[in-house]
């Protein structure tokens, strides 16, 4: 060990005790990007303020930390997720279904999205991943499930 580095750290880039994610066990088909943004989620005739944790072409993970809805079962409920991109002129609106709910985190599957919103979302993901070919494959998979 030199300069506080162990063999495991050098080989994996991770500190001892931290295991790299097994990509073969990750079932996600779409690349996710971290996206810390406030959004509005409408579920069961209630408009909730939430924080987006991450986004993909296929959905989002949000945190409902200030909501009593975080305590109830939300699985399979349909709603609307809306958030702005930096300015008030550009927003993303998607119809979502709650796919999983664990404590205050809620996984949302995008079931419908308008053309402007998907265009903005696609460009944002492309800029954040830096891999336009991967995004093209994901977009094709989204269009042809």
Automatic annotation (TrEMBL):
InterPro entries: C-di-GMP_BP_PA4608, PilZ_domain. One of its GO terms (molecular function) is cyclic-di-GMP binding. Residues 26-126 form the PilZ domain. SUPFAM superfamilies: PilZ domain-like. This is PilZ domain-containing protein.
